[in-house]
Amino acid sequence: MAPKISLYTAHHCPWAHRAQIALRELDLEFETVLVDINIPRTPEYLAINPSGLVPALVYDGHVLTESGLITQFLVDSHPSHLLKSSFELGGALQRFSVTFFVDSYIKAHGFFDTAVYSYDREQEATAAQKYIDAIVSNIEPLLVDAAPFFGGSFRLTFAEVQTGSFLLRVLALPRHGGILPDCFIKDLEGKAPNFWRWSHAVIGEKTVTAIWDERDVVKRTLARIETAKRRGKP
Ligand SMILES: N[C@@H](CCC(=O)N[C@@H](CS)C(=O)NCC(=O)O)C(=O)O
């Protein structure tokens, strides 16, 4: 019998977006419950997730939190093209490679966020450069065989489920004047061609863009940058 799934989410949250991608790739039916994270959480939501964060997933009555763990649970519970099980041939190694890749990407992405929310131009340029350097040294070599997706796959894998929402931001935000240094996109394309090809393939997938609202994310990002500037720290 199909599981009963409710996803508590906010569409502009990149962490919650991961669960959307996983559920859609796995073709699972689910109910979406939008949580307004700009106001104090309701007692009902705090009873589901006491941390108040999104996402939370209720799966046949079990409450799951933390986007990485939720998506891992989903792919482990529903065998698919996304990730092999540990006991399949090559499965343990694939799982290691994907986890290593995702971990490396999320570390690099921290520099991108620092650049976006920086309070002065010098800090922005330094963090943007650190992001590009981390992509070139740590991510680019891991994408040498992407075809177009991780590990030579022609379909999305768990690596893209975990990173796609962040890639949408990396490729969209620099197109909005003043959020990142002007040379950011040109440098990324020139210095990290594997990353460039792979990330564009990822953001071309319907399951990745289904709930993506660029205008809304840009508006919220600009508002947060203003707050960071007023406070004088990121
Ligand atoms: N480590 C968490 C991070 C989730 C997270 O930071 N969610 C943010 C929105 S993007 C949130 O719920 N913020 C509400 C708040 O801080 O009150 C995960 O991966 O699920």
UniProtKB/TrEMBL annotation:
GO cellular component labels: cytoplasm
InterPro entries reported for this sequence: Glutathione-S-Trfase_C_sf, Glutathione_S-Trfase, Glutathione_S-Trfase_N, GST_Omega/HSP26, Thioredoxin-like_sf
Domain GST N-terminal: 3-82
UniProt protein name: GST N-terminal domain-containing protein
Pfam family, one: GST_N_2
Species in which this protein is naturally found: Penicillium frequentans
PROSITE patterns for the chain: GST_NTER (PS50404)
